[in-house]
Amino acid sequence: MLLLDIMSKKICNEVYIIAEIGQNHQGCPETAKRMILEAKKAGCHCVKFQKSDLAAKFTSSALNRKYVSDHAWGSTYGQHKEYLEFSKEVYHLLQDYSREIGIDFTASAMDERSLEFLADLRVPFIKIGSGDANNFPLLTKAASLQIPLVISTGMQTMSTVDKIVEIMSESRNEMYALMHCISAYPTPPTDCNLGLISVLMRRFPNVTIGYSGHELGVSITKAAVLMGARIVERHFTLDKNQKGSDHRCSLEPAEMCSLVRGIDQFRHNKYLLNANYTVEEIIKMLGGGDELRAALSEVENKDILECELPCRFKLGKSIVAARDLDKGHKIQVSDLTIKVSEPSGISAETYFDIIGMQLTRSVNQDEPIIENVLTS
Question: What domains can you pick out in the chain, each with its CATH number?
Answer without folding.
Answer: 2-295 (3.20.20.70), 317-375 (3.90.1210.10)
